[in-house]
Amino acid sequence: MMRISEVTVRFGSFTAVDGAGLDVPAGTVTGLVGESGSGKSTLARAVAGLTPYAGRVSGVARGRVQMVFQDPYSSLNPRMRIGDAIAEGSRVPRGQRAAEVARLLELVSLPAAYARRHPRELSGGQRQRVAIARALAAGPELLIADEITSALDVSVQGAVLNLIRDLRAELGLTMLFISHNLAVVRYVCDSIAVMRHGRLLETGPVQDVLGAPQHPYTRTLLDAVPCLAHG
Known about the structure:
This protein is 38% helix and 25% strand.
């Protein structure tokens, strides 16, 4: 289990994350939801070791957290071929990397021949699949997905979400899935944590939190999605 204990992130006098505590059981997907500016991504970057923080993150080895970002184009080196980008973080011996790249591309439903392409030659959905493959190449103990469909066309968002569900089932991934979309979280996640102004307000199984929210803010988020608010 990955455990976040009293994690606080400050930027000068501003507290972006205020004493957050959250458990992410192994092999499960925990959704982290809240409005823009709630501290979701800052908490994720702290867990990934990208932002200094006070508190403790346990249950995951240093360097074994991988993060997939919102904009796949900005997270990929435009000059680097897809295969090289994926192989860069791989833990397999150098002589086996071409085969490993082909395996990872197949895992995210892309042809092995795409290894020779550059990011500009791919669609947004394909680039996000490459970003996921690159994260998986490192063999992460925890995969953080930060609003990974929000920059994509609506027509391809569902395909990427289905990929996440399939990968979770096939690989037993442990994931922290960040989104402002409760419908997406219900589709992908086992449990949910609601965040506002840097604080976690409510956590629990998805069906419990969305079916009978305890905090007024959670109810406000739910009311904004009629199909969820009314079952």
